[in-house]
Specification:
The chain is elongated, with a radius of gyration of 30 Å. It is 17% helix and 30% strand. It contains 6 helices and 28 strands. A 6-stranded mixed sheet has the order 8-5-7-6-10-9, with no helix packed on it. The protein has 413 residues and is of the alpha/beta class. A hairpin with a 2-residue loop joins strand 21 and strand 22.
Length: 413
């Protein structure tokens, strides 16, 4: 049989990423309760409805007093704790005060316990206090009307705490992306089924669905489609009817049973059909109206790497984030690294801190069907094409996929 040639030119990865991001405007906004906003991206800034703090507070445990009294003994009038309001102080008077408690009227400073002596109902400062010492003024954290959290912020636990401190019950966030996931291939059976003959279990469906859910998408699994154009088209149309993003796996090469590219062209507009990188050269990206369509390769490693590099930035952009492109981090090869001769190679690797340097080693054989090469990988090491093996110690660039362990961790247990 003659060798099949793709009509799609290979697009550089950076250019392909830009095409994806430009086609993914942020989704419409909706109001949600504060706790339901965790992991969502603000569509509007949150403004402080009031000064924070709303009263002058002590930043230490000590004695509230008047700085003008110098080092003279002060008569101790009592104590004020956080949540209480102390009585006004006159000249020569002071109050014991706890951290966070409101400073009583008449006081303009707080002297820490260790810098004063209490004796016979009086307090004697060891040095003359300074007005404003150890006080947190009204509005020192936020002024009423000041921007507390800017639009485009993905809300984490700290931001939820800020909202609670401000008394904000609801926020305006971008809607979560809805993703329809379709797996294709006559050779596949469900992951929980027992394969017979040359069939294999579907690993891409569970893996891709787990990743998409972890990244905050609402995922609808369309199932496993046979290599029949009418079956795949029907499921694609079902996904297009409800999803912001349709992700498929398999059927994007140039064989007789690779149907996704023709179907994408029929249902929408293809923006690229091949990428100048590995693994995942036949990755296909299209749009149908406002819906994004990603045709991932069927090989498990290729599918996952393409999901990380292309689908994830699109999801982040749809969710309202601004800075969504993968970040390259400098590192050093911990072993000789062999690049691909013809294309940039994104090899699965384990990155660790060693003697203050980020060092990477691959996870072993890098075949695109070897799902095991992703287990434990917390980085993709980016190797430009070439015939020369990079020696151990050579500088490289990596994309981090997860936390990094090593000798820069905080303490040893």
């Amino acid at each position: 049989m003659p060798h099949e040639i793709s009509p799609y030119p290979m697009v550089p990865l950076e250019e392909a990423l830009c095409r994806v991001v430009r086609a993914a405007p942020p989704l419409p906004a909706e109001r949600v309760p504060r706790q339901a906003a965790l992991g969502r991206v603000l569509a509007e800034p949150v403004l402080a409805p009031e000064d924070q703090p709303s009263f002058v507070a002590s930043t230490v445990d000590g004695y509230a007093m008047r700085a003008a009294d110098g080092v003279l003994p002060r008569r101790l009038r009592g104590e004020v704790a956080a949540g209480e309001a102390g009585e006004a102080l006159g000249p020569g008077e002071c109050l014991r005060i706890m951290t966070g408690a409101p400073v009583p009227p008449g006081a303009d400073c707080v002297v820490m316990f260790e810098w004063a002596e209490q004796r016979d109902g009086f307090v004697i400062p060891e040095r003359a206090p300074v007005a404003g010492e150890n006080l947190r003024p009204v509005g020192s954290d936020l002024r009423a009307g000041e921007e507390a959290i800017p639009a485009g912020t993905r809300l984490g636990p700290v931001e939820i705490g800020v909202l609670a401190a401000l008394g904000v019950r609801e926020v305006t966030v971008h809607r979560r992306p809805k993703v329809a996931l379709l797996i294709t291939g006559d050779e596949l059976v469900a992951a929980d089924a027992t394969p017979t003959g040359p069939a294999i279990r579907d690993s891409n469906g569970p893996a891709l669905q787990a990743a998409l859910s972890e990244w905050g998408a609402e995922v609808e699994f369309l199932g496993i489609a046979r290599d029949r154009p009418e079956e795949q088209e029907a499921l694609l149309r079902r996904g297009l009817a409800s999803a912001d993003v349709v992700v498929t796996s398999g059927g994007v090469s140039v064989g007789s049973y690779d149907l996704i590219k023709p179907l994408f062209a029929k249902l929408g507009q293809i923006h690229f059909g091949r990428i100048f990188f590995r693994p995942g050269k036949p990755l296909t990206f299209a749009t149908a109206g406002r819906t994004l369509l990603f045709g991932l390769p069927g090989n498990p490693v290729s599918a996952y790497v393409c999901l990380v590099l292309f689908v994830r930035p699109a999801l982040r952009r749809l969710a309202g984030e601004q800075e969504v492109l993968p970040t390259l981090v400098p590192a050093f090869a911990g072993e000789p690294l062999r690049p691909a001769a013809d294309r940039p190679d994104y090899q699965r690797a384990i990155a660790r801190w060693e003697q203050g340097r980020l060092v990477v080693r691959t996870t072993g054989p890098q075949g695109s069907s070897r799902l095991r090469s992703l287990v434990g990988a917390n980085a993709l090491v980016v190797l430009p094409p070439g015939e020369t093996v990079l020696p151990a110690g050579a500088p490289v660039e990596v994309i981090l996929l997860g936390p990094v362990a090593g000798d820069r961790t905080l303490g040893q247990c």
